[in-house]
Structures are given as C-alpha cells and as structure tokens.
Amino acid sequence: MSNKRGFASDNNSGVHPRLLQALQQVNVGHTIAYGDDDYTHAAQNLLKQHFGETAQSFFVYNGTAANVLSLKAMTNSFNSIICAETAHINVDECGAPEKFTGSKLLSVETPDGKLTPQLIKKHLHGFGFEHHSQPKVISITQSTEMGTVYTPAEIKELTDFAHKQGLLVHMDGARLSNAAAYLNLSFQQITADVGIDAVSFGCTKNGGMFGEAIIFFRPELAANFKYYRKQGMQLASKMRFISAQYTELLKDGLWHQLASHSNQMAQKLAKEVAQIPQIKITQKVEANGVFAIIPPRIIPQLQAEYFFYMWDEHNNEVRWMTSFDTQPEDIDNFVAKIKELL
C-alpha cells in the first residue's frame, strides 16, 4: 500500500514525532487509572491556562464522542440542536447525536458553513408548546467543514443572540487549532471570551494519535458529565496517553506551529491551482481546506495517485485537505499531475 501523502483528510496523516515521544515518556511504571493521575491533572491545568479559569475539561477517545457527549450534557431529549447543513454532527456521525441525546437536529443551509442569527431565526419558534421540540443548542464548527473561519465578532453576535433566546452555544473544535492559528488569537479569545458554552477541542487532526477534549465554561454543564462519559463508553482507563499528547501540544506552542504549517500549505495549494483556468476555487481558503470545481474527466486518475474526497459530485466539487506533515513538494507534484492530466 502506498504511503504517499495525499489530500483526503488530516486524519490520514501520521503522528508528530514529539507526540510519539510524549506517549513513550508516560509509558513507564504504574499510575492511577481513569484520569486521576498527575499527567491528566497537568494537562487539565494547561487547558485552563489556554481557555481560561472557568474551563472544566474531560478527555474522550474521538471527535464524535466529544461532540455527542458534550451535546448530551447540554440538552434534554425533548430539545432540538440547530446546526449548519454541512456540520459534522449532521452529515458524518451516523445519527449518533440524535440517538444518544434524543434531541432533534435542525439543519440550516449556509453558503460558507457559517451560521448567523438571521439564518437560524426560522427555527426559533414553538417555545413552551409541547408538540414541538424545544430549541436549546446552536452548534457551530470552528474552523468550519468548508474551511472557513468565524471571527470573534461573528461568534459574539451569535452567542449574544442565543443567550437572549435562552439557548446555549456548542463549538465543534476538531480543527480549532487551525482557526486560532489563522486568526492569530488564543483559544480563550475565540471561545470563552466570546460566549461559547462548551467546545470539543481536537488534537487528532493536528498531529495527535487519538483523544479529544471536551471543555465546559459553565459549571452546571460539567456537573454530571463524568456519568455521561461513563455511560457513553468513553472513560479511558489509561487516560494518561490522551493527556500526554495535549500537554505536549500546548506546553510550548507546538499546536500553533503545526496548525500554521497546515494552513500555509493550503494557501500554497490554493495559489497554485488558482492559476489553472479549468479550476474554480469555491470557498475562501482560511484554514487547511481547499474546495474546488475541477473537470470531471481527470478526477479518477488524479485520485488514483493522490487520494482525496468528492464534496459535491453533482457539481464536480472536490475537497483537498492539507496536514501538519504536508510538504511543499507534495503540492508541487500534485499540481504538476493536474496540469499533466489536463
């Protein structure tokens, strides 16, 4: 099997050497299980430094669990969750949010993956009416599934609107590092400071092996979360192997270095393909994704050498993702292949 670096997903990349080393360093002796260990406590303290003193964090294995269980803590079964039509919770989690929360997902069509108060107003009705699921949470993704990034002002406008309506705001932060690097802001400045109530903060897409963090900024949301995590089969017995990765990413800015590189590679790719007349870039390139419409005849041959996913088959729109380990020569060779096929 070829191990050529492609452009399908930042999940396809390997693990950064420093994170592998961090895993090895905690792989000695015995320590208390289920998160009551010094490594996990250290990681949680670091998360407070990056997200603010109100941050209460919990580790789980994967991104779907991070989203689903955080939403479980924010809802009752009679509630509804408003999200973009393209949201991971709506498209790529096999109905898990609805199965485990009991809540109804209400999707909103957006031009760029970003929600606004105006776009979600149509779902804000039926409050107190027992025949209607009760809106409770707005879930946004940062950076979005379309590779775009919310500014702090856009988030603040949305959270202020939500809170006035008695709603909470959840952020799917699988690529939060890419967004923070693009904005050149801290995690706190684009979460707690602008009114986010809970965030799923991923490391897997930014050089990690496994593990995600759920961070609550309201104590009442965290109060019973340890029980939801256990019922959700996400309580890691050897949690130090998740915690160690977060400590390594956060302690000296490695997260920023890796995410910035990934973003820069997406910018390079976009710049190169934009010069090809037969290719049309369809979204702003702000994080580490490039969306483009390309001639359909070259897609199978191109995928055979550099695997990537179709985004919209009807319009011949593809998605190209860069990773922390994408190299300039990967892009040069990819673009050369496109030109050759054209």
Please explain how this structure is put together.
By secondary structure, this protein is α/β, with parallel strands linked by helices. It has 14 helices and eleven strands. The chain has two domains: 17-251, Aspartate Aminotransferase, domain 2 (3-Layer(aba) Sandwich), CATH 3.40.640; 254-341, Aspartate Aminotransferase, domain 1. The chain has a seven-stranded mixed sheet, with helices on both faces. The protein has a four-stranded antiparallel sheet with strand order 8-9-11-10. The mean pLDDT is 97. Helix 2 packs parallel to helix 11 and helix 12 packs parallel to helix 14. Helix content is 39%, strand content 16%.
Summarize the helices and strands and which ones pair or pack.
Layout lengths: L16 H9 L12 H14 L4 E5 L2 H12 L4 E6 L3 H4 L4 H6 L2 E5 L8 H4 L13 E8 L10 H13 L3 E6 L2 H8 L14 E5 L9 E5 L2 H4 L2 H7 L8 H12 L2 H20 L6 E2 L7 E5 L5 H7 L3 E4 L4 E5 L6 H14 L1
Parallel strand pairs: 2-3, 2-4, 4-5, 5-6
Antiparallel strand pairs: 1-7, 6-7, 8-9, 9-11, 10-11
Helix pairs in contact: 1-11, 2-11, 8-12, 12-14
Features:
342 residues, Aspartate Aminotransferase, domain 2, Aspartate Aminotransferase, domain 1, 2 domains, four-stranded antiparallel beta sheet
